[in-house]
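Sample entry (94 residues):
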Amino acid sequence: MIAITGGTGHSGSFLVDILHKNNFQDKIRFLIRDNSNTTRIDEYGLDCEKCNISLTDVDALSKAFYGVDTVLHIAGIQFSPYIVDAAVRWGDAE
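Predicted structure, serialized as tokens:
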């Protein structure tokens, strides 16, 4: 499974388009905000789940990475330290 941050944003929408056009088959976990517009994700019918989460909550992020082998971090660079910390924690726990 892959996890994607920023999949509902401007840059992330291009990634979602590519996944759809290339008939991506793996499960996707989108890490989204409560107010994210998920219309594109919903319309494409990708095999996915949406996880409402704060990208600054390292504990919640670490839990959201359960079962994930790849993280595509497309959200703002200001969230990178949190994403990396959570991924390291998840990797250490596994």
